[in-house]
Structures are given as structure tokens and as C-alpha cells.
Amino acid sequence: MCKHVFLRLVEQEKDPGFWKEWAQRTLKNALTLQDLNKNVAKNIILFLGDGMGVPTVTAARILKGQLSGQNGEETQLEMDKFPYVALSKTYNTNAQVPDSAGTATAYLCGVKANEGTVGVSAAAVKSQCNTTRGNEVTSILKWAKDAGKSVGIVTTTRVNHATPSAAYAHCVDRDWYSDGDMPAEALQSGCKDIARQLFENIPDIDVIMGGGRRNMYPRNTPDVEYPGDKKHNGTRKDGRNLVGEWTDRMKDKRGYYVWNRKDLFSLNPSNVDYLLGLFEPADLPYELERNKETDPSLTEMVDVAIKILRKNERGFYLLVEGGRIDHGHHDGKAKHALHEAVEMDRAITRAGLLTSIYDTLTVVTADHSHVFSFGGYTHRGNSIFGLAPIMSDIDQKPFTSILYGNGPGFKFVNGARENVSTVDYEHNNYQAQAAVPLSMETHGGEDVAIFSKGPLAHLLHGVQEQHYIPHVMAYAACIGQNKNHCHTNSGSPSLSHISPTLAVLLSVKWLLC
Q1: How far apart are CA 341 and CA 276, in angstroms?
Q2: What are the residue ranges in the chain where pLDDT is below 50?
Q3: pLDDT tens digit sequence for 401-417
Q4: Which positions are catalytic residues (predicted)?
Q5: Angle value at C-alpha 266, between 260 and 272, nearest 5 degrees
Q6: CA distance linking residue 186 with residue 128, whole number of Å
Q7: What pLDDT sits at residue 491?
Q8: Residue 216 near residue 276, CB atoms below 8 Å
Q9: Alpha helices, DSSP H only, in 139-272?
């Protein structure tokens, strides 16, 4: 932050009137929320920050501000601007601290489930194929598709990873990415791998973007982008080319397959009805390491997805996952995790510009938290990746504000805690110190935030079970099981009154985007 700007801000903050005026502006805005938005949600968007616990949200807010030259603490994330905030209880049916598969089943299918399973109820047992049949549960993506809406999935992980797979798959093991990852007995019992289910269970998903190419091709098929690297070769034992099958099926339906950013941006969304974009053999790179020539950002993928999906007059459902927030934390690499969170916030901003709160319900939440924290009495404007201003009074060594409860950052040098002043603790790949040594840092078990705006967003309030989320979204959109409120005597969807002036303004905004 420029020194003169910082000094001016400090002088302002010494005046009680500065804080009182700020509070009054906030109060004035809050009073407008008394007029509830009870419209039918034509469009519904779920942004899922994988592993984005409340400490991650706060730290990402500070980082966002510091990236633009501010102190950071006073910055607003786009999700901070949403009028309604609730807390979600994330436990799985068999786990106090959850995983991403059981949680995805909750916030997508509306049913709590066991750890490690996707799209099946808690009656299904992890890795036991014979417990799948009869325990399948469908997701809000399918409810939306059945209602005639367009649907899409955008992720920075593999498109068959835990979060997106719960939208379309029914699998007792989240790691059955392709049939090459499945035990023989599961295949013999008729269970299907997740990549196959992506194309067969709901064969007309309108937009699919993320990574995961290698699970779509026959074993040993060289990857189109990395033909000399065998670890990226195809993994399928059944010999099927799922991408080729999809392309053949969609060639007369204005469907396009792309595997790089250039090809993605060569498309005119107005002329595309179906899009499959697989930009990496596995997960997409971290935002800080992304090749901006070959891989699109999450914001860019969301932009294209909405422009394709919104052509449907019945509206759309879009699942967006900032999936590598979680990976950064597991690696103990907080800098990657927080930059991933900031990028997802940019995508939320872009989605807001392309839609309207009049007819679009947008929800931002996380599946679970991490044992990530920041503290140490740091001063205002301290780099979020910087040192605390005090030394440990036990070992007389400095420490970073960011620490993990466990993980790969546990390091002893000559029988004592590493002196972080001797390493580059602001490096992209620096692993923050951890209290307990683990090769991979773990999830946290505390509640996570739910931010919401748009039609019936006020129903996401208080402290709720995680599986409540898709039921609210479906209710707002008049899809799924609870639709009794959706029709007038004429049978048309009911809409609450909105002033003509506001309706015109919102329509103009949408057309300009």
C-alpha cells in the first residue's frame, strides 16, 4: 500500500465519525433487505470452495486487498457482499471430520452420506460394490435437467473428482476414477467407474469443464498435450475412448470438445449448445503456476459456461468448484490455497456481472475446513504470509502468522524447530510450519459459511445441516420434490411483485454483460 494512502487511512480511523458513518451506511443497506426477494429462481449457481473454511475466507480477503495495494483487512471479497450468511454443519454420517465425497453428496443430493462415497445414501458401504444398487440418490443437477434447464459443471480439479462426481455418479468409492482404478470384483459385480458415469448417467450435460483427460482414454494412449510423458497416458482397461464417443454423439448437436485455452476462446458461445473441455490429464495447475497460453482460469471457464447456459429460456444450474484450495492446504502450501480462493472470488464477481439477483440464486459455500490458522498478534497490513511480530518465548525463534495443526510443514533441524527466518517463507511452495508431522495435512471439522443472494436466499440462515442447501436451491427454482408453492391457479410459475423500474434496470444490466 502506498505510504501516503496508508497514513490517510490511519488518520481517518482515529476519528469516531469515520466508523459511525460506515456503520450507518451498512445499516441503511441492511434495511433494504426487509423486502424479501420471493421470485422464482430461473437460474441457480453453486460455488463450492473445496476446503474453504472461515479462516481461509478471512485470509483470502486480506490477500485480495494486499494484491491491490491495500492493508487487506478492510477489503471485501465478492462473497462478503452477499446479503445472507449461514453456517453449515459438515460431518458425514460416519465421520466427525468429513471428506469431500460424503459432503458433496449432502450439498448436491440433499442426503448425508458416508465418507468416501458419492451419490449414494448412508446405506451404501465404502468400496463394497454390492451395496450400490438401491441406494442411489440423485442430485440437484439432475433435478434441474429433468425440469428442462441447461446444466453445467466447472472445476479446477478432474471432472470426475469427488465434488463434481456427486452431481452425476453413484459410486461407493470416490477413487474409482476409471475402470483402471477399480478392483476386479467390483467390475465383475457390475459397478461402473466415475468417468464412464459422467457420460452415461446424464448423457446430455450441457457444459463440462475441468481436468481428467487420462481417465477418458484407453490404457497407454499418449496424451494430446504431453505425448512423451507416460504418467499422463490413458488409464482405461475397457478400451473405450469416452471423449471420442461424446464427440460422435454431439457432432450434430452443436457440441464441441476442446483441450486448451486457445480452442476454448475460438468458440462463439452463441453457436455452442454442448461443451466438453478437458484441459489437463489430471487436475488443472494451481493458479500461480497456470500456463496462461494453454489453460483457462476458473473465471474464464465460468464466463464461457454462463454464456452458453443462459441461452435456455428455462434457465440453468451451474456447479462451480474452486477445487485446488483444498489441495494447497493438504500440501501445507498456504500461498497456493489462498490464491486459489481469490481466483474463485473473481469467478463469483464475473458470474454476478452475467446474471441478475432478480432471477438468479447464487450460493457460495465450502464442503469442509482445514486445520489452517493465522494469528500471532500481527500488525495491521502485515503480509498474510509474513512473520508474527514476536518471537516464541519457549525456543526464542520467529514464526509465521500462518500455521497448520498438522501436515508436511513439521520440520526439525538439529533436534529443534526450524528457524523460519533462514528460509523464504513467502515462496509460492513454502510449506507452513505444522504442529504434528503428516505427509498430508488434514481437513478440519468446524462449521463452514454459506453465502447467498437472489430469490429466496434468506432461507439460508442460521446454523443448518449441510444437506439442507440443495433443498433450498431446488425450492427457489421450483424443481425437485417440493413444488407446491410454484404455481398459480393458471398453472404458471408464480413470481413476487417487483417494481417495473427495477425489472427494467436488471434486464438492461443482463443484456449489457
Answers
A1: 24
A2: 1, 488-492, 495-513
A3: 999 999 999 999 999 99
A4: 100
A5: 100
A6: 8
A7: 40
A8: no
A9: 140-146, 162-165, 184-188, 194-200, 242-250, 261-265
Q: Report helix, strand or coil for 495.
A: coil
Question: For 445-471, b where at least 16 C-beta lie within 10 A, e where not — what string?
Answer: bbbbbbbbbbbbbbbbeeebebbbbbb
CA dihedral 324, 51, 441, 97 (to 10 degrees): -150
Which residue pairs, CB below 8 angstroms and at least 24 apart, start in 8-14? Answer: 9/71
Dist. CA 406–CA 440, nearest whole Å = 8
Query: 154 and 318 in contact (C-beta within 8 Å)?
Result: yes
> Which of 198, 204, 228 lies closest to 216 in space, CA to CA?
198
What letter does residue 321 receive in the DSSP assignment?
Answer: E
Tell how far CA 70 is from the center of its chain.
Answer: 26
Helix, strand and coil content of the chain, in percent to the nearest 5, comes to 35, 20, 45
Q: Is 100 a catalytic residue?
A: yes
Residue of 68, 88, 100, 392 marked catalytic: 100
The CATH code belonging to domain 37-50+76-368+453-477 is 3.40.720.10
CA end-to-end span of the chain, whole Å? Answer: 32
Q: Residue 403: phi, psi to the nearest 5?
A: -140, 160
Residues in binding site for Zn(2+): 50, 326, 330, 367-368, 443
Q: How far apart are CA 203 and CA 20, in angstroms?
A: 56
Give the span between the Cα atoms of 505 and 299, in whole angstroms. 25
CATH 3.40.720.10 residue window(s) in the chain: 37-50+76-368+453-477
Q: Please report, as a single letter, which amino acid is at residue 327.
A: H
Q: DSSP of 190-205, one letter per residue?
A: T---HHHHHHHTSTT-
* pLDDT tens per residue, range 288-345: 999 999 999 999 999 999 999 999 999 999 999 999 999 999 999 999 999 999 999 9
Cβ-based neighbour number of residue 277 at 10 Å: 24
Cell for 324?
485446488
Annotated binding site for Mg(2+): 50, 161, 163, 321
Q: SS3 of 222, please?
A: coil
Q: Between helices 3-13 and 16-31, what is the axis angle to 10°? A: 80
For residue 499, the one-letter residue type is S
Q: Identify the helix (H) or strand (E) that includes residue 463.
A: strand 463-465
> Which positions make up the binding site?
50, 161, 163, 321, 326, 330, 367-368, 443
Q: In what order do the strands lie in the sheet with 84-89?
A: 255-258, 274-278, 207-211, 150-158, 316-322, 43-49, 360-366, 448-453, 84-89, 463-465
With a CB cutoff of 8 Å and minimum separation 6, the contacts of 34 are: none
How far, CA to CA in Å, does 443 sit from each of 95, 332, 493? 11, 12, 42
Angstrom distance (rounded) from CA 412 to CA 238: 48
3-state secondary structure 146-161: HCCCEEEEEEEEECCC
| pLDDT at residue number 487 | 74
Is residue 372 within 8 Å of 402, Cβ to Cβ?
A: yes
Closest CA relative to residue 155, chosen from 270, 296, 335, 28? 296
